User: Fold these one by one.
Assistant:
Number 1:
Amino acid sequence: MQKLLMILIDENDTFGDLSLYEAICRRLIELGAPGVTVMTGIMGFGANQKIHRKRLFGVPDDRPVSIMVVDDEQELRGKILPVVRPMVTEGLVFLADVEVIPPVAGQ
Amino acid sequence: MQKLLMILIDENDTFGDLSLYEAICRRLIELGAPGVTVMTGIMGFGANQKIHRKRLFGVPDDRPVSIMVVDDEQELRGKILPVVRPMVTEGLVFLADVEVIPPVAGQ
Amino acid sequence: MQKLLMILIDENDTFGDLSLYEAICRRLIELGAPGVTVMTGIMGFGANQKIHRKRLFGVPDDRPVSIMVVDDEQELRGKILPVVRPMVTEGLVFLADVEVIPPVAGQ
């Protein structure tokens, strides 16, 4: 079964010398993820209510980032999440059921 | 059970003196939502076919906005939707099942 | 039952003389889709690992694009997907269950 993995973090989150979202993308490529889509938002807040308000109304450059991967559930649970989940110390990681519509025959 | 709440509106929608998406974010903070992610798109159309075409091919500054919240279903249905749903007179509001992947032990 | 249709393609993908995402939007309007939201991301990779890396670290102008439509399942399967799916030769097309929250009574 295919699942959508969505990771919601901040653009300014870091992982070693890299931005966290770039580090996660590199690992996803290494792990053989079939595709990744990274999008940024315009505002967001996470775990800390004080930071929320500051971000929401004061700091325009710490944007939320979403990373989406669609893959087989066993790949996501067995191979990708064990590596990627520990990289996200603050942020949200979730799975959702999806039905992938394959290319039409002969395409 | 956790659900994703997604609200799709337009960037130019207003609520009193505020943009609607900012007004919704303020209410979500007041209501104790654990996190919010707001993203803008590049084009969209909604209920009115005429407006669609105009937006789609003529007006680049009325972008779609998505607001995402992941929370317990009872919080969303009992506390957040009763306040936020009436704020959205045009637009789309929907819930989807998600499985939140918790931080690894010791993180 | 309502479903979310999500199409993930690249901003530079073409369809005839149009960008693919614009071509898909035009068809969705013609097909009577109740609404469409188009968003662009900041990075992505798809089917070809070599292209991935190049895109990811070298080419900032080939951004991923997501197209979202929420509609009745029978409309999506019977009317929209037969037209739109063949337009996407590279990219990802999937459906997800959603529960649309209707406007409150009297709104």
Note: Helices of chain C lie at 20-30, 49-57, 73-84.
Number 2:
Amino acid sequence: MKLATYKDGSRDGQLVVVSRDLSTAHYATGIADKLQQALDDWGFISPQLQDLYETLNNGKARHAFPFDSRQCMAPLPRAYQWADGSAYINHVELVRAARKSDVPGTFYADPLMYQGGSDDFLGANDDVPVPKEAYGIDFEAEIAVITGDVRMMSTPEQALDGIRLVMLANDVSLRNLIPDELAKGFGFFQSKPATAFSPVAVTLDELGESWDKGRVHLTLQSTWNGRKVGMCEAGPEMTFHFGQLIAHICKTRNVRAGSIVGSGTVSNKGVTGADGKTTWPKGYSCIAEKRAIETIQDGKPTTEFMKFHDTIRIEMKGLDGQSVFGAIDQEIVEAK
Amino acid sequence: MKLATYKDGSRDGQLVVVSRDLSTAHYATGIADKLQQALDDWGFISPQLQDLYETLNNGKARHAFPFDSRQCMAPLPRAYQWADGSAYINHVELVRAARKSDVPGTFYADPLMYQGGSDDFLGANDDVPVPKEAYGIDFEAEIAVITGDVRMMSTPEQALDGIRLVMLANDVSLRNLIPDELAKGFGFFQSKPATAFSPVAVTLDELGESWDKGRVHLTLQSTWNGRKVGMCEAGPEMTFHFGQLIAHICKTRNVRAGSIVGSGTVSNKGVTGADGKTTWPKGYSCIAEKRAIETIQDGKPTTEFMKFHDTIRIEMKGLDGQSVFGAIDQEIVEAK
């Protein structure tokens, strides 16, 4: 099933069930008002939501209304955890190669993750407010999952069973704040403003065979100012699957229902031709990666970061060509 | 007023108002069931809680019952944000001196903070489950505040107005996991398991003159296995006050109601005698600091980290000698 959260002026919005084709929706009132409530008691509540979903898909839900992603908050407008991985090692390799630093061998066995702020997420069509262009505004197109309870010391396989929903994320990053911040040694903080999520979050069965053991085998499209810059394959090059990412968190603590875990920037390796030249036909899921490639090839980056009023659209289509999660489609604006 | 959250089998527990002397409590049922609910609508709900608090203190609350901190969850059993500072630069200086690295000059102007996990906090008397003693188990005695909404780009003075409640924290740390984790460059993650908080959180007026512009001028006591190891002054040596810490978060994002912001390990400078020898008469608020001092003075640490079944008690008394927040009093146990 597909779930979304509609704006109603409250902090957590109203849970709605959305039809498979994203054309209609229905309030889940009477079942659960908020998505967190459903996650807290998933075994009891999700079958009721599933029933409503089927009625909606059959065109028989009496109070259905046209679905409008502009009315969406993030599926979880605020969450108890947002832990983001860097599961595509190719991205790490490129960024490090650009600054002439090697990728430590342990990075291939031990996931890199950071803890993000989760008190104030953006809806899929909300503006992205940033104080200054000079901060180096970048998008990061990612896949994210929402978990149920996963116990401390769970294995990656056990952690896979704890995945409830999948969605897309725009992990907005302020690149020019990152070097000084990481040099302080405590990780990202001011360089990661509010993250945005796709209009709907979907259960695993919606992905069909495209979901395979913690990886989504579909293409993540990123369109910057109307120009398609990324058509990245999210499946085969995901070094750590979502079960491994969740198990990484679980090493020393429980993961509780409603935790959001991100994949990090989806990234594909370049292709080296007979002439020895490498190209990246699948494009990029964040500008930093494009700039890293330019630095490796030309000695310096030429693509600039985002400006106020730039737009970014992030979407993923299923094997049937239909949008799975709806599109993240946002404008960067000056924070006032 | 003083607020706590009683265990009731649910994820968020039940909000109770606790008398000033911590002897009695009263359910806030009919006003607000959960502390987050009160924080979400503080202007409307807090005066009603305050009325109940006064009735309780006057011995006139009809359904009052004896307060028992063992029934407490963390005041916020799970939160939308837990951002912990390192506001006592003396602590940073000692830890860095022990590993012969300087404190960068910027650390005196720009707070050091990390984003912590907030989906699964521990109550004040809950056991601390850790998978292995070899992880290097340490306590960290801290002060923490809970905020209302604070807008992006707020000044430290504006941020001070956003502080709703104050409490104590035990930011449990796994020291032997830290070096490898920080070397990865993304900050703490597995080295910071679930944090515990004091039985009650209190409004600023409860601190009277001990609260001065974002600092708590009282002594934080840490007792390890029954031995008092820390009697640290929390006020004068707090390099960055809570308004500055919150404003640091606000540089690029909004801080939303129910965010918890920590001070980092409370730490006091040593005293150098006429013989040129430095001692630390106020003790320490985490073992890592004691070990840093030993390393600086003797070339190596001799105090070992905590073992399973060790206990740690963290408490702060007001000018009247009474416990302000109740005591964090926990046992370290092996996670199963």
Note: The longest strand of chain B covers residues 163-170.
Number 3:
Amino acid sequence: MRIALMQAEAAPLDPERNLSAIDAAAAAALDAGAELLLAPELFVTGYVPRSLASWLTPERVAEFPAELSRIAAARGIAVAAGFPAARMDGGFAIAAGLWDRGGAEVLRYEKVHLWGAEERLAFTASDAEPRIADWNGRRVAFQICYDIEFPEPARALAARGADLLLVPTAIDGESDYVAEVLVRARAAENRLVVAYADHARSADAPLDEPTAGFAGLSTVAGPEGAVLGMAGRGSELLIVEIPDRAEARPGAADYLADRRPEIYRRWS
Amino acid sequence: MRIALMQAEAAPLDPERNLSAIDAAAAAALDAGAELLLAPELFVTGYVPRSLASWLTPERVAEFPAELSRIAAARGIAVAAGFPAARMDGGFAIAAGLWDRGGAEVLRYEKVHLWGAEERLAFTASDAEPRIADWNGRRVAFQICYDIEFPEPARALAARGADLLLVPTAIDGESDYVAEVLVRARAAENRLVVAYADHARSADAPLDEPTAGFAGLSTVAGPEGAVLGMAGRGSELLIVEIPDRAEARPGAADYLADRRPEIYRRWS
């Protein structure tokens, strides 16, 4: 299976333009033989939590899922992307969704670990256990940005059978270790594939936002932490061939079989 | 603080020779200004679990702790090393111990995650929660080899205040990702220092043992997964300066503060 990660610059608070960019990337991804396009965290509005705190209304965000569904159906390729969503409790979530190539919603997720004071100005953290969906023969789940830096959620998903984690992200340029080390570790220790799609570094990012310079370095990591594909700093459509979960090296560690959850529970 | 990792070839089933090698390395480590020497997993007997299954007796292993204590006291430097130890239940543990520069025992540990069928022939896995000891202003704990590949134990130790994990190991040459990715991830996600000391690669390792060719690559990893020092493949005394735990970059992620254990418990 081939997947495409969209590393690009989002236009702050300009969903129309950003949805057009996702549409164009979906077309290019399909041309490259990919079955899925993954776009970064909050790409639909731009990752500008400080600005979003005053911009967000339920009306402004209501149509984002339908528009992403339309792109998937129109282009005939599965689309996963990050966007803000209204919550039942009146707040907003940093959300992600996956639509199949017919435009049907396969999976929705809301970020559990918010990053820093700025995200907390605009958003509420979810407490909900991430769902796993069947899609094109894979067991797929979401994490968003900071979520994947914690070992616990990826472990819980792997224990329930997930084999592909889609991770829209917006990671700052001082934290290269997240793509280079933590994303690879989550793949290795859980024997699954992690696709981590970041915003491209921008020369003229808004200086009052927490993440003025993104890392780029969108990454797909696989068995034993192998880097299956990694982008540079700038805009790029990263096309990566991912292996089946079954393809572990003979003699490779089987962490899910060998871990000892009953004693960990006693320790914590 | 400066520490020394001993990456060397152990002589199979020849404790006298291996203890002499630890003694010589302790002297060299002290000369280099180190406060601690860390030797690999089962270094005292060699990492030869298949051979150890028939060799081990309580009498043969009884004096190892006392001999390591004597080396520490004679050289005036703390010594941590891996050795086989008799268990209360009649079996044997893959053990590690830390003695301070006066020869007093600071910490003892028995491996929780055994690797492969060969280790299970000779050894019994421990269920005990790892202890944390105060030593030279640090909060120190052990993991042994396969233990550190699981995120759960290191997380439990970090949550209880550990800031330096000593990890004697014996990792095969097909698993470089453990030193290069997982060891760095444990340091990054828990904001502590991990010192991972492996056997040197040997050209004439016994072919009937599971790990004929070791990886080498002894590593010390620190904040944000930084490689503070890494050995090559062969014999080497790796001298590494380690930072205080307090030295986190302003704005760095605080995973222990931001993790959400109450919801992880619901998920697993």
Note: The longest strand of chain A covers residues 78-86.
Number 4:
Amino acid sequence: MIKWQPGRAPRAAFHGPQALSVSLRTKTNIAITLLGVIAQMKSPLPESALDQLFRAAHTAHGFRPEPVSDETLHELHDLLKWGPTSFNCQPARFVFVRSAAAKERLKPALSPGNVAQTMAAPVTVIVASDSRFFDLLPAQYPAYDAKPIYENNPTLARETALRNGSLQGAYLILAARALGLDCGPMSGFDAAAVDAEFFPDGRFRSNFLINIGAADPAKFFPRGPRLTFAAAAQIL
Amino acid sequence: MIKWQPGRAPRAAFHGPQALSVSLRTKTNIAITLLGVIAQMKSPLPESALDQLFRAAHTAHGFRPEPVSDETLHELHDLLKWGPTSFNCQPARFVFVRSAAAKERLKPALSPGNVAQTMAAPVTVIVASDSRFFDLLPAQYPAYDAKPIYENNPTLARETALRNGSLQGAYLILAARALGLDCGPMSGFDAAAVDAEFFPDGRFRSNFLINIGAADPAKFFPRGPRLTFAAAAQIL
């Protein structure tokens, strides 16, 4: 088994008595081939990056007042947009609610327990989905005519928008963490009220919300327990 | 506006005529406070990490033969499990289909265009969801009794499992990339056939598949166009 460590060759490649009888030229060719393979293999990110993305990341329930700039929001989108979606369909839409006036429009739709943290967050992202994402498929995936698959199957279209829009929401969470920001995702809000206020023509539907900014660590909750590998996974 | 750059103080903090009249002691206190804020602020990951996670990552359509070890699959789960879910509900289940025998069980359910790449992938993950995730909520989120919210609302439960199970699938994709692996996610398969074969008791439902391993770059497709910020996002 190859361990995905930087610059480490597959073990046992040069071991065993057979290797002793291999000519220098063959050994050199094997070494060059192995170096080529190693050069193509990507290394794991440093431990500090894995901590920042996953192990030490914490859902934010309170924020420090530092604002999030337009430039940072563009950087965020320029990362998350590369995440994969079915037929490159990209159904997610992102409304960055940042001004006090826009926050006030969002406020009545929030669950009471989410009001304070959302009003304090530098930005709250409405992650929405385009219910007519398939109209864009001819431009987004010209190699194959996938539009009819969804246009003629509203249940599949709705499920595809939710699945892929959620993937893109997760890409946003991890892209934000990669940029040094903290996230507080939330499902506790009145989706119909958000849609009526922000998407009155009915084409876009809110999926979930994400507060982003620099977290106030004093307002972290203790982390909940995570399912073990044995409880959540199996290898067949 | 603060740019989230390492070790850079908020601009204009010491600028302007007012600052000239501030005492040395006040200035020192401000500086110490600012240093504290800066120390708490996380830095963006290096450009090479942003490339590996997002900008240079490519959906894999072919793989090199290097296997993926049990240890790597455990490392992968130990990262992705930390991603946030509603009420810490963690509905996703991951079946790592690796052996030839298990691949043969999966094969008849694949869309024809996905057979070759899936049979060649070192591992294919069935990302499934637990339709009774709410039974685990008392243990996973003891602070609040959220179980009845879902148990009494099958539509909400189904939607929550799909949303959060998809988030966790995206965490897996980015955790795999963070470990230096490549991913090929797919929705092209017969979900009912996968469920009948792998989850015959009906509790778990397949959501999507992800091939993982070391990609053969010769089999990359050209990347599809991505929606611009103006097409996919707005700042209010």
Note: The longest helix of chain A spans residues 154-178.
